[in-house]
Write a structure and sequence with these properties.
This protein is an alpha/beta fold. 41% of the residues lie in helices and 18% in strands. A hairpin with a 2-residue loop joins strand 13 (358-364) and strand 14.
Length: 426
């Protein structure tokens, strides 16, 4: 079906919640997407950070094989791959790349006994438990439910969650309530209560909030690198203060890793860049390389307050999703993609800084944003012109471009992007 035909159908039958670009993608491989007209495009958005290994290849092969066996049963039963993925996530949550690599190697070997041995916790190892969901919003909802339940059952009793202005945690009413942006909240009020806003990186304001509310607080929820507001990293001082203050009242630190997590920032989880271990972390986007999947992980002593019936999901952790997640995480661990993302990302920062009209480059690894001066015009127009030139990028505002390429991105891809932007902005 042609772009014109597809556009006519979608304009007629789909709710108008997206401003779509005039391209219909019908195929792809690696860093490239293919339009219905046969044109190829270099992808520096990766489905908003989802297609971490690019298009086609491993993920396509795994889901074909799994679909031929079993797509879905129910969380009432045990299935292949799910425990292995949770074990990998536990190792990665500890920033234990050696342990994660041992698990990945065992999985790749196909030896069940070797997998069981590699997944087993070592003496004294912090175990993280996983709940599988379908999306980032669900992962964040579950994280907040667990934080409040832990406060209740641990005897703290607080139910207030401190969130950051400019953050983004999802599109459900609860996650919008945690997303401290008036433009996203105003039309949907009244929203669920129990949330209080703090300015990012303002340690004094954070301390005042804790002085005022004290043990009413059960959690601080933050994105270590705020994505939707234009890729704004928090400071180490602020993240460490949040950790200390919330633990001081018996609460927990929730790290929203939906956009940044799993190797993109140069670490398995972005919060690890700040020498802090959060208590609960939410995931989605790149966890299964394009198959809809999400999860939240929590330290065992926190996760164990959940009892059967406290939380659930029909589709979360499906046969298809966990098979894809196991293959993707195994490839990422074995390929040392955290280091690769850090190295190529650092090069990308240097190169983007040379583009005309770029005033600042921010982020970590392959989660980057850059601001444009007034003379560059609207960033959305820059995105449209880049698309015409064969590059898929994104704007988060009138003067900010965002880049979330697949983690297979190489320096040569960066050079081609910079050449395109230099031409578009020159």
């Amino acid at each position: 079906m042609s772009l014109a035909q597809q556009k006519a159908l979608e304009d007629t039958y789909l709710m108008h919640t997206y401003g779509r670009s005039p391209v219909e993608f019908v195929g792809g491989e690696g860093m490239e997407l293919v339009g219905d007209d046969g044109r190829t495009y270099r992808d520096f958005l990766a489905g908003i950070g989802v297609c971490c290994l690019g298009h086609g290849g491993l993920v396509a092969k795994v889901i074909q094989e799994q679909a031929a066996k079993l797509v879905h049963v129910s969380n009432y039963f045990y299935i292949e791959h799910r425990g292995q993925v949770a074990a990998l996530l536990s190792k990665l949550a500890n920033d234990d790349l050696e342990g994660a690599r041992a698990v990945a190697d065992a999985i790749a070997s196909g030896d069940a006994d070797a997998v069981a041995a590699a997944c087993a916790p070592k003496p004294g190892e912090q175990v993280w438990k996983t709940f599988f969901s379908n999306s980032g919003a669900e992962a964040n909802e579950g994280s907040m439910k667990l934080a409040r339940l832990y406060a209740h059952r641990a005897g703290n009793g607080g139910n207030t969650i401190v969130c950051l202005r400019g953050g983004f945690h999802g599109r459900t009413l609860e996650t919008i309530a945690a997303t401290m942006q008036d433009r996203l909240q105003d039309s949907f009020k009244p929203l669920p209560g129990g949330f209080v806003a703090c300015t990012p990186n303002d340690v004094d304001e954070l301390r005042r909030i804790f002085d005022e509310l004290g043990s009413e607080i059960c959690a601080v929820m933050l994105e270590p690198i705020q994505g939707e507001s234009g890729v704004h990293p928090l400071t180490k001082e602020f993240v460490q203060a949040a950790y200390d203050l919330v633990h001081g009242v018996g609460g927990v630190l929730i790290s929203d890793e939906v956009q940044a997590g799993l190797f993109r920032p140069g670490k398995p989880f972005a919060v690890q860049l700040f020498d802090v271990h959060a208590d609960i972390m939410s995931l989605a986007k790149g966890i299964a390389g394009g198959v809809p999947a999400g999860a939240f992980v929590a330290k065992q002593e926190i996760a164990d307050v959940f009892r059967p019936g406290d939380h659930g999901s029909t589709f979360g952790g499906s046969c298809l999703a966990v098979a894809a997640a196991e293959a993707v995480l195994t490839r990422l661990v074995q390929g040392d993609y955290a280091a690769h993302a850090a190295e190529v990302g650092a090069y990308m920062v240097e190169r983007l800084a040379t583009v005309p009209h770029v005033t600042e480059v921010r982020g970590s690894g392959l989660m980057l944003g850059c601001d444009l001066d007034e003379a560059a015009g609207d960033a959305h127009d820059v995105v449209a012109r880049a698309l015409e030139a064969g590059f898929v990028i994104n704007a988060t505002g009138a003067h900010t471009l965002r880049f979330l390429p697949p983690l297979i991105c190489e320096r040569a891809d960066v050079d081609d992007l910079v050449a395109c932007l230099t031409s578009v902005l020159g």
